[in-house]
Structure to design on (486 residues):
């Protein structure tokens, strides 16, 4: 009996170990590279001949590239709040960065909707949703949604607080962030975040992990490592891309991505890691060109919201594949739930849909009618071509190849066919009134469903004939904390 019992116990241990191993293998690690202000064409695989990004380019070859991927908003905080909560902006009230009444009051026709500057803790973040499934979670870099991401599901926070751009000395030490301090001169923040990310992977290699590497780069201030800047100063610029310091920042970001991917390979984790590469909004119009897309960061034209996006999930995504289905940042929350086998938080409504079917087959169509943006705020201009504002309060909808923008000051509607007119040069609203009515009706129905507020109160200060200073080129080299909000 003793021998038989020994055999049974040994078999049970072996069997349970096999099950545990299978369970571990069924839970892929997740590495999410979230880059700040990276434009749609700011990478080699997206067509840039000046900026260099060999590691991200290789990731694109190894994974699936999304050509119609969109940020949830045209600037940082609302895009991140939507991503982390899985909900459109009207659900959480984070519409813009800082206050919503930016720019000259005399030029603002409406009183904009009041903005919320942090993501309330009642919202369940992606990190909180993954933890019950055994994931250890880390955010490294820009948080911008409150003072402490460890109160919202993250076990580890490195350099994340409420600010939207590098604090203290900017990208060069000495700087001081939560759990990241270096008082000696010379260290580069982007490099250091990559080092910290690799340490996290090494420490947690034997358990499923969610690493949210949310770089401050390539947000202003435009500060590069001197040796890399010299490299691009010696390189022939192109018509669209010519900023040597910005190019150097992109290369440093790419090096950080390469370091993390290299660590996954070194530890034998690559085959069981889902990797996402994405940006929070379009490129800064005073720094880079988003052409052929119209507009830039802070605008609901394509240049402000269409982003480079890659997903690599070994055994699921086809290397070198391209998906042209419309996807948006809020889709990544349900996607990660499905990929990790994690249940949706009880009683918690998600606005996005899982793109896992696309990852399996790029030709799949998602089961939804449209994607939306709601931006009831003002953003001042910072180049002469912007005028007083990059955008006045507005909303947008994309349905298939069609896109409609509504401007709330005067109710103007702009309709574009993005397949035929990528640069949004021809407003078809009057030429195609039926399609305009169709998209506008869908926008109004969605607005009612999510209780999206529209500014209607007139601003008593409004005096459009009053002269105001012309937009000045921003000072990008020196900037502390989040006092300025580009």
């Amino acid at each position: 009996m003793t021998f038989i019992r020994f055999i049974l116990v040994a078999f049970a241990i072996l069997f349970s170990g096999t099950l545990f191993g299978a369970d571990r293998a069924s839970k892929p690690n997740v590495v999410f590279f979230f880059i700040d202000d990276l434009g749609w064409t700011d990478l080699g695989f997206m067509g840039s001949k000046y900026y260099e990004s060999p590691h991200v380019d290789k990731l694109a070859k190894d994974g699936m590239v999304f050509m119609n991927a969109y940020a949830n908003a045209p600037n940082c905080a609302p895009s991140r709040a939507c991503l982390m909560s899985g909900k459109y902006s009207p659900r959480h009230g984070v519409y813009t960065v800082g206050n919503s009444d930016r720019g000259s009051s005399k030029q603002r026709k409406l009183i904009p909707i009041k903005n919320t500057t942090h993501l309330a803790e009642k919202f369940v973040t992606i990190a909180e949703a993954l933890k019950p499934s055994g994931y250890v979670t880390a955010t490294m870099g820009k948080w911008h949604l409150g003072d402490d991401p460890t109160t919202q599901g993250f076990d580890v926070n490195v350099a994340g607080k409420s600010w939207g751009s590098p604090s203290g000395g900017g990208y060069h030490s000495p700087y001081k962030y939560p759990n990241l301090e270096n008082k000696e001169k010379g260290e580069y923040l982007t490099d250091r975040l990559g080092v910290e990310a690799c340490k996290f992977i090494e420490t947690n290699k034997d358990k499923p992990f969610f690493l949210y590497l949310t770089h401050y780069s390539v947000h202003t201030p435009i500060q590069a490592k001197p040796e890399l800047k010299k490299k691009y100063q010696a390189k022939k610029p192109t018509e669209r891309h010519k900023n040597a310091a910005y190019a150097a920042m992109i290369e440093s970001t790419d090096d950080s991505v390469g370091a993390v991917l290299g660590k996954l390979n070194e530890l034998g984790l690559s085959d069981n890691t889902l990797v996402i590469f994405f940006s929070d909004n379009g490129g800064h119009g005073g720094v880079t060109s988003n052409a052929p897309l119209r507009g830039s960061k802070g605008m609901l034209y394509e240049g402000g919201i269409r982003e480079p996006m890659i997903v690599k999930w070994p055994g699921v995504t086809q290397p070198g594949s391209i998906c042209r289905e419309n996807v948006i940042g809020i889709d990544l929350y349900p996607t990660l739930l499905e990929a990790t086998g994690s249940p949706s938080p009880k009683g918690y409504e998600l606005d996005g849909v899982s793109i896992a079917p696309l990852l399996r087959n790029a030709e799949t169509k998602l089961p939804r009618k449209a994607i939306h943006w709601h931006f009831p705020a003002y953003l001042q201009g910072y180049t002469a071509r912007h005028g007083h504002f990059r955008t006045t309060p507005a909303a947008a909808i994309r349905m298939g190849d069609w896109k409609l923008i509504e401007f709330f000051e005067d109710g103007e509607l702009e309709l574009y066919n993005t397949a035929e007119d990528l640069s949004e040069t021809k407003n078809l609203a009057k030429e195609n009134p039926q399609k305009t009515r169709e998209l506008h009706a869908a926008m109004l129905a969605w607005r009612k469903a999510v209780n999206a507020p529209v500014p209607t109160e007139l601003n008593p200060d409004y005096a459009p004939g009053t002269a105001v200073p012309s937009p000045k080129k921003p000072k990008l080299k020196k900037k502390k904390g989040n006092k300025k909000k580009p």
About this structure: The chain is about 25% helix and 15% strand. The longest strand covers residues 29-35.
